[in-house]
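Newbie here. two chains, one complex. Structure please?
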Amino acid sequence: MYGTKSKIDLAFEYQSQVAVLRPSIHSRRANLTVKFQDLYGFTVEGNVDDVNVLNEVREKVRQQGRVWWALEASKGANWYLHTTIGQSSALTSSLKFSALTNAITLKKLIRKGIPPVLRPKIWFSLSGAAKKKSTVPDSYYDDLTKAVDGKVTPATRQIDHDLPRTFPGHPWLDTPEGHAALRRVLVAYSFRDSDVGYCQGLNYVAALLLLVMKTEEDAFWMLAVLLENVLVNDCYTNNLSGCHVEQRVFKDLLAKKCPRIASHLESLEFDVSLVATEWFLCLFSKSLPSETTLRVWDVIFNEGAKVIFNVALAIFKMKEDELILTHHVGEVINILQTTTHHLFDPDDLLTVAFDKIGSMTTNTISKQRKKQEPEVMKELDQRIRRLNSLRTDDK
Amino acid sequence: MATIGHNNLNAKLVGPSTPFRFPLFLSQNFVSDDLFLSSFPQVLLGDMGAGKSSLVLRFVKGQFLEFQESTIGAAFFSQTLAVNDATVKFEIWDTAGQERYHSLAPMYYRGAAAAIIVYDITSLDSFTRAKKWVQELQKQGNPNMVMALAGNKADLEDKRKVTAEEARVYAEENGLFFMETSAKTASNVNDIFYEIAKRLPRAQPAQNPTGMVLVDRPAEGTRAASCCS
């Protein structure tokens, strides 16, 4: 039912079993920091409590898996792939109704997590990657990678530079095989969209996609759908204008949803973009533990990029009481970093993100973006002109 | 301008676990140890792969990694440094190097009291990029900002493309101080931060009663210690 397990994930499971489950008596006593490997092979540092949380999370993942198998038994195999309504109006109303109820069930279910074994299939379908892939010949990815093989561009040079710097030490990503796979995906994408080419940050996103999707080709299509359909435009192009827009929207939302924090941080002259930029560009992959990151991505692929705001707001919200007592920028950053690095239980974060932040529709967010765009463009434009004038002065 | 300092024997890193105790009679209204320190926001700028993160990691943790994760946006570090009998706390923003991240940089250098512009001595492009940063900071940055130029990867002598002389002349002409560093061998890493600490304008005791005098040189600017004032 789950298909064959690849070499990668067997290796991970084996290693993680060994490293995680038995923190030594000494470390238990001394409450020392221990190093261990998480579900996806990342080395994590934490105390014994963190190890226990991680073990609980594993158990929850298993339980959640059982919920999915039970639904599969009652609703039929792949029921979750048939939740889109409207494409064929020939559907009978009862079928439409079942698609709708399935969509509602699925939304709730996905917020509680997709079992790791089902992730590749579900992400590929729900994100729209499958559809995107179906519009081009089957050989598209192979042809593209062959056609660009051996070509050197500024993008490929930067990619080569970043390969060993992407999650160094990871048991698969940081091997010649892992580097080669990541390189092919990033290089292929840099040729597919020359406006994006290669933007630092995509290395982490693509690496995690590779770990989940297991095949390069699927990872490539996930990257494509993410950049072309899921995220706001121009997040990674030229001057990151899309990212600037998102940051402004985020500041407004923080002021609205967490006014106490926003006004305190303003009094410290702390610009939330100082920390949130990385969250948005790497989709939390550099800040949150891997399973927590992937749980966030589960929801992003089903509900859209607005989820990034929910999660970013939740990180602040969770630490409201501590944040409003800070006196220095450094303290704020320490609180946020410690919090994100130790969010081993995804439910702690997602409960706040969806229950406490309150819902925000994609529509509201789009309106906010439209409002901010002209200002961002003006600012970036002025900056470029100032820099250019500075260069001509010099001649 | 002065170059490599040899008078840095007093440079001493104070571990984060060593709280600095200020004599009580000088400061009775203290709340926490933090108030005894003057914090200085500082920024590292430079081309991708020049070694900005490696310099910070060496300075803050005394470590070197052959492959350092690429920085996205910017990473924050803090480190305390004892200079003569004063203590300076650096709050360091280590920025992303890729050209397109340039548009984010003002957010990090806007309030900075000091900047280290880093290039890789084995790459001419990175030196060109460093000069652009200098220009930008001169026009857009805080006018009292202390600027240092770091020619990093000085251990790779056989691959050198930028001579120390060329960089020194450039630094002198532009009012920066210059050092060649190696995050790998640790050469000059603490020294460059120490040198910056010495040049920071001292806090004005009148304006900042809980602050402290940092250096025994006359103040170069009126900028008081930020953050904790």
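Moderator note: The radius of gyration of chain B is 17 Å. Helices of chain B lie at 52-61, 105-109, 124-140, 164-173, 189-199. Thread marked as resolved.
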